[in-house]
Amino acid sequence: MKRLFAVALGILTAIGGFVDIGDIVANGEAGARFGLGHAWVLVVGVVGICGYAEMCGRVTAVSRRPVFDLIRERLGPRVALANLAGSVLVTVLTLGAELGGVGLALQLATSVNYLLWVPVVAFVLWVALWRVKFNTLENMFGLAGLALVVFVVAFFRLHADTGDLWHQASHPGPPHGEDWGTYWFFAVALFASALTPYEVFFFSSGGVEERWTSKDLLTSRINVFIGFPLGGLLAFALMATSATVFHPLSTSVDSLSQVAMPAAIGLGKLGLAAAILGFFAATFGAAMETGLSAGYTVAQYFGWAWGKFRRPIEAARFHTVVLVSILVGAAVLMTTIDPIQLTEYTLIFSAVALPLTYLPILVVANDRGYLGDRVNGRLANAVGMVYLVIVFVAAIVAIPLMIVTRNGAG
Amino acid sequence: MLLAFDLLDRQIVDRDGQLVGKVDDLELATADDGGLYVAAILVGQQVLGRRIGGWLGRWMENTARRLEPTPGTGPIRIPYDLVGTVDSAVNLTIRRELLQDPPLETWLCDHLIGRIPGASHES
HSE-up of A259 (CA within 13 Å, CB side)? Predict the structure, then answer.
């Protein structure tokens, strides 16, 4: 059991990247419209985030410094401030979207409009981040998020035409009636969300919260190499079930209830219940991840005391940032903006923050002053370099694609 | 040691591992033989704002100055004699309590965080 809880940090981090509210719907929508044509993007995303999260975990365990410390140190106060502004914007807007996601999951269960749930959810989230131990939070929501495994089970119960799915996955591209612009828009969106900056901020800060030292390198690696592939698998299951049920009918998916449908078709009421529980836990977990990340990054930029292991009065500035982020996130959502659309807009701000986040990580992971003989090997550097190029390209094309395709509407 | 590379913007940690702040700027002095040496580390948004520059930097500087407990206190000044080792962080040989309190932390503690129930409990 202890071993199982040891990977909770990795699982919770991965949930925020792969199956938060925006991704749950984006995966369902991609599956319905393009079949498994985007399956390769998930593989590319998993490999990239594994490579970089491993570096972050190693740097944190050996030097006991979280990622944002390194960003300011290597890029200087001005460029780091640009990264901070971009990351905090993405993180807070995503936080708002997740609050809406929790509301939507609760709406599925109770039929009460999600906007009525948002203030309640925001308050509960704040209380959790104020009072509940970091370990308890990550264990509870990391593991409850695994209820989404129901989509893996449902996939097998749906008796999909595997030959057809294999054909879609091995011949990536837009099917009849879709164009390359929208195809690439979805590819960039799924890739960028797999590598969102708040994942590495949360993961490395979580390592500090759990007081990792050089002895915990193995724990860090297990977290990375189990957590992220598992997150990718859940995202794949959402895409595959949607591709099985909706793609042949040429129906599109744009709401949470539609994404849940394959679980209900495959496994009945219990399947639906597990899907709703999974949606709830995943979105609440992602809300926690983004809320804490906002506090972590700001505090780490300025060098303020931070962390849930400290009493709130000892980290007043950190807790103020968390509180304000939740309020702003909830306020954005109460403008009745669509939470799912909101996560797609955050792509713009990700574009600034992605390269500025991953470049310093790669540089520091090669610095013997920090890591001694634990610096990157050839494989890690090769993966790091390749992904740095991909991240740059994704950052450049994201905005034009968004404009040209009108946010994927095609 | 390269000052800009090894010292500036690094995290400062006290004797017990508590976070003090960043090396926002350095105070240099001239030695008897005419060479320069680091006299002190400066911590605070006043000096950080100056390094950032522009309207944002000025705003940061002015806000920090307005929060000073008595006008003219300036940034937190840590004499370089108090620095032990410099590795992934700048490690001080003293406890944080012996230094000036960061004004924003004090203000938020008194006016916001400290007033919320449970603020002084460990979670």
Answer: 35
